[in-house]
Amino acid sequence: MSELSKAENRKVGFVLGLTGGIATGKSTAAKVFQSHGFPLIDGDVIARETVELGTLALRKVVSVFGQEILQSDGQLDRGKLGMIVFPSKEKRQKLDQLLDPFIRKAIKDQIAYLSSHHPLVIVDIPLLYEGHYDHYMDAVAVVYTTPDIQLRRLMKRNQLTLEQAQQRISSQLPIEEKKQRADILFDNNGTKEELMEQIENWLSANRFL
Known about the structure:
Rossmann fold; 5-stranded parallel beta sheet; 9 helices; 2 domains; dephospho-CoA kinase activity; EC 2.7.1.24; Depp_CoAkinase
């Protein structure tokens, strides 16, 4: 497993990007880091907060995709929005363009604050490479599985058909490309305990534990 490649033995403010493919176990890995007390910046949480009721970002999204993406109480219906954007690369790109300025600012602000107070900060972003967030990281770790395991886990977790799951996987960079670009690799083809052991070994090897 890779050692820290960009800031070897650095003990203050190391920013580790954490990514992978959809349903490859990135969130499970993030919980391992959190269990050891390291702060987590969760890109999914920030993205959800960005489009909460009453936000400028939500108004922009509705102006493009229509009132039908809202629930009766005015909250965003993520399922309906997903059904619109996942089959269409053009619509996904449009949604990304609308939300990116809001999400990027929030992530950068949290990185700046937390990295000045903690020796290690984890930044969990599903589309880290696609969004060019790797430039803000000292290193990037990719959690991966085989394509077959990824597909089966996604179908089971999200109750998707084969076609729907394949659409969501194909909307991201191939996991093999992410692996090639990564500084650190965590293999999640096995059990949660095996994934935890890999992460704890990395933390120990780099003097964070």
